[in-house]
Amino acid sequence: MSDRYQKIATSPFGKSLFSSLGLPTPVELDRQDDAAADFVKGKVLVGAAVGSSLLDVVAKTLSDSSAEICCQASAATASDVVKAAEAAGKKVTQVSTGREDVTKFKGLVFDATGISSTSELRALHEFFSPVVRKMANSGRIVVLGLAMEDCASVSQAASMRSLEGFTRSLGKEVGKKGTTVQLIYVSKGAEAQLESPLRFCLSPRSAYVSAQVLKVSNGTETTAIDWGRPLADKVVLVTGASRGIGESIAEVMARDGAKVVCLDVPQAKEGLDKVAARLGGTAIAVDITAADAPKTIADALEKDFGGVDVVVHNAGVTRDKTLGNMKADWWDMVIDINLSSEERINDELLERNLLRENGRIICVSSMSGIAGNFGQTNYAVSKAGVIGYVQAMAAPLAEKKITINAVAPGFIETQMTAAIPLMTREVGRRMNSLSQGGQPQDVAEAIAFFASPASTGVNGNVIRVCGQSLLGA
Ligand SMILES: NC(=O)c1ccc[n+]([C@@H]2O[C@H](COP(=O)([O-])OP(=O)(O)OC[C@H]3O[C@@H](n4cnc5c(N)ncnc54)[C@H](O)[C@@H]3O)[C@@H](O)[C@H]2O)c1
């Protein structure tokens, strides 16, 4: 759905008028069209606190892009950045970051893992303060921290937790230019697993993801992947794929090389078949709440592909009423479609060993499951339950070398949100740091990141795709 406000606000006339009236002027966000396109272009300023441990993997990751690695000439760790970049085959441009310098940065990456006590948090101010106003539009900021459980002291653990407050506040300051800020905690020994999340956070794929905290822990060792087609030959099941976000997930998966299996209710068969045909995939028309649905789905995947690599539980419904007016059948229906059916399908696939090694389960939750929403007790129960399910399943699935994660979309431009009354819709759209609604593609990109065979260290995470909505924690 088009956002007329944004179109007017970004026109040459609208821009000055809207800013003089103090109204938000949302910028057009960069998005990934071609899977093989460079994940980051332009100047990326890299810095670190003294004693940090992730510069090597940062440099190695950036060496696979056309980005120009820069460092602050005056920084105490400038020589560490140069050393790491040279080892990765990249030259470093040393920049002075004084007011007179007009360099624009596409990305800022700060390795904060060396901060060992709260008195060293000053390193954040030293790195970011001189450059935060020098970000290009749709810029990317990434802060790297050490997982709290690996901290050597209470003061270090407190410092690492401080990074959350920093990134969430910074996201609110830079969002008006379409810039996003993420924090990635890395466990000791999981350094090699950082590449996939770092690429995602620096790329246009994370256009509508901001102020999120990702955790990277030890995952299954993976062989080299083709970053231009990360899902090549993977079989991906997407439920609710005949339209909306599900259709976009199937598109992005196919773009990334997957064989897509699109599923939707029999009533949506016509649209479903069209989507599957367009993407060179197959279709399963089944209601996921039917008693025999898990078996039907598992049988189809076994017969056609001998199993499945990625399962995306996207199908979902809302049936809104305040609790006092809500009939039991609406309560039951929403929880069964959005939550219980996912458990039953996973149980069948796991019992029959059809989800292959380095497999992925990705669930679609909602901001409503995090913040709650008026008239949505049933929906919020189901979507908060999805988060609980993901968190509870992460450890047992890790033993089988499978990961499970969730996305929690905020305001996404779909038929569902187009039906919201105008004023409520406008408020929903603007109440986030990027002052605009997200696109179905933004949700799909976050799911594709979880699905990547390289995201093996990302397990039990929940990413909000909400432009840093002002609602919720
Ligand atoms: N649109 C948003 O802003 C938003 C925000 C947060 C979360 N979500 C979630 O994202 C997911 C997709 O939402 P959407 O906006 O694309 O909605 P949508 O209504 O356009 O699509 C949902 C799809 O699920 C299918 N479906 C419903 N019940 C089913 C069943 N029993 N069996 C099989 N398929 C079934 C529908 O036929 C439909 O194709 C949902 O889980 C929704 O709760 C959406």
Average pLDDT over all residues: 94
Distance between the termini: 28 Å
Low-confidence stretches: none
User: What is the fold named in CATH at topology level of the largest domain?
Assistant: Rossmann fold
User: Which ions, cofactors or small ligands are bound in this entry?
Assistant: nicotinamide-adenine-dinucleotide
Strand order of the largest sheet: 3-2-1-4-5-6-7
From the 3D coordinates, which CATH architecture of the largest domain would you assign? 3-Layer(aba) Sandwich
What share of residues is helical? 25-40%
Q: CATH top level of the largest domain?
A: Alpha Beta
Integer-rounded radius of gyration:
22 Å
Q: How much of the polypeptide forms β-strand, as a percent range?
A: 15-25%
Q: Give the number of DSSP strands.
A: 14
Count of separate structural domains: 2
SSE string: HHEHEHEEHEHEHEEHEHEHEHEHHEHHHE
Find the CATH superfamily of the largest domain: NAD(P)-binding Rossmann-like Domain
Q: Counting H and I runs of at least 4 residues, what is the number of helices?
A: 16
Structural class call reads alpha/beta
| Biggest beta-sheet profile | 7 strands, parallel
Specify the overall morphology.
globular
